[in-house]
Amino acid sequence: MRTREEQIADLENQFGEEGTFAFVDDRDAATKHIIEAEQRGYERARAECAADTRRIEYFNRYKTKAISRWNDNLGRYEWSVQLDKWYPTFRDAIDAAMEGGNG
User: Fold this and answer.
1) How far apart are CA 39 and CA 48, in angstroms?
2) Are 27 and 8 in contact (CB under 8 A)?
3) 21-64: per-residue pLDDT in tens?
4) Where along the chain do its domains lie?
5) Quick check: pTM over 0.70?
6) Which 8-state DSSP code applies to residue 14?
7) Which of 74, 96, 99 is nearest to 83 (CA)?
8) Which residues of 22-41 are buried (b: 16+ CB within 10 A; e: fewer)?
């Protein structure tokens, strides 16, 4: 992963190739792009944490039982909180239970 400064320099060079901005404008534009991308990443991480919190609260509230099994065909574990269907991840299993009632 490149540092912020490396990313800014790369964007700055790309903007400069077009010749539409002055050096200071190129650097400012590149900096704004990087900061915006970082902010989107932080927001995405917060949203994922909030979704996981809702899953845990649901799981605890309904005392849902989760079980896993090894799938030889896929070479991975699958999860279920409803015994009628298996899901590739624990999150997927809880989400399905949340959508279908209290599991």
Assistant:
1) 14
2) yes
3) 555 677 777 788 888 888 889 999 999 999 988 888 877 777 66
4) 4-100
5) no
6) H
7) 96
8) eeeebbebbbeebeeeeeee
